[in-house]
Write a structure and sequence with these properties.
0% of the residues lie in helices and 49% in strands. The radius of gyration is 13 Å and the shape is globular. By secondary structure, it is mostly beta strands.
Amino acid sequence: QVQLVESGGGLVQAGGSLRLSCAASGRTFSIGAMGWFRQVPGKEREFVGSISYNGQAIIYTDSVKGRFTISRDNAKSTVYLQMNSLKPEDTAVYYCAAKVGQLIASSPTQYNYWGQGTQVTVSS
């Protein structure tokens, strides 16, 4: 079993920054690519970004390109989401996800493990 725990969410004003962390525990050797998703009430869970196991392939949704950066430290079994120039529309519950396969993916159905989520609220 793999457990994922997000941290770093909170309140921030528009234009500010936050860094989310996702620490994996358990059978971490089974983890390949990892991703970040977000969800707001009344909407489907939305893809934010994904990073391959070796960190050499990264994809983002268009709305966060140039503002968000995904990185990972496999020695610490941790993936990060650095969020800069935050906008009110970034407000959501952010979820960390991990998949067994090594390839990046943008669909929630391709991920095997999920964290509980951390709230990010951006005020104007």
